[in-house]
Write the structure tokens for this entry.
Amino acid sequence: MLDPSYFAAADGFIARYGKKSSSIIPVLEDIQEEYRYIPRELLTYVADQLGVKESKAYSIATFYKNFSFEPKGKYVIKVCDGTACHVRHSAPILAAIQKELGLDGSKHTSDDMLFTVETVSCLGACGLAPTLTVNDEVHPKMTPEKAIGLIQDLRGDEA
Ligand code: FES
């Protein structure tokens, strides 16, 4: 059962964009930004409030890659595995990060909810390959060692 504060926040987002069906995307974007994911109960609630069928709201939310139904960590690390990064050895970088965080191909978020690791097919910074982003900030010319250092620095910020 979702905490009532989530529904109050959703009401605030709905008030911001207006109680109409065309507000569905900006409201979902604000929910995603606030909580780093879209709880299913909240999707149902918002769809109802905006007069959108739940199935339609669900298909909108699944269409946009930025929306997630799984809780994500505070730091979302996207490791590029596009061609330019792959040939410059992105795979060992991903493996090192996953090992450091106790993750694998099916477990994407660390138990402490600090890190979510995803792969993407290009970050648009091929000249800086291999790259990764942390919450959309690009980190160029990565190595497994630099990636581990980055994680340790982020952990240090939390201590
Ligand atoms: S392939 Fe990695 S940034 Fe383009």
